[in-house]
Design brief:
By secondary structure, the chain is mainly α. Helices cover 40% and strands 0% of the residues.
Length: 82
């Protein structure tokens, strides 16, 4: 669950909102919703998607999932408690 300690007001363009709503699938049994998120480039995906922490999982593409996994592994190594 996301902790709503801080909030942000975000405005989406009509095109971005239509794309998000159009790509949303019905929630699964646990309430997760699959959507399509466009990223500028694979190299930008980890920064953009890891902002969501464990509240989001990249399912596709394989290339973006691997990039996010590599970045998460690097963070885990960096923050490993000795």
């Amino acid at each position: 669950m996301l902790h709503r300690k801080f909030s942000s007001s975000v405005m989406f363009s009509p095109a971005a909102m239509r794309a998000a709503l159009a790509s949303a699938e019905p929630p699964d049994a646990d309430g997760w919703v699959r959507v399509t998120v466009r990223v500028e480039a694979v190299k930008h995906a980890p920064v953009q998607l890891l902002r969501l922490g464990a509240e989001a999982e990249v399912l596709a593409s394989t290339e973006i999932r691997q990039a996010v996994a590599d970045a998460a592994a690097a963070l885990a190594r960096l923050y490993r408690v000795p």
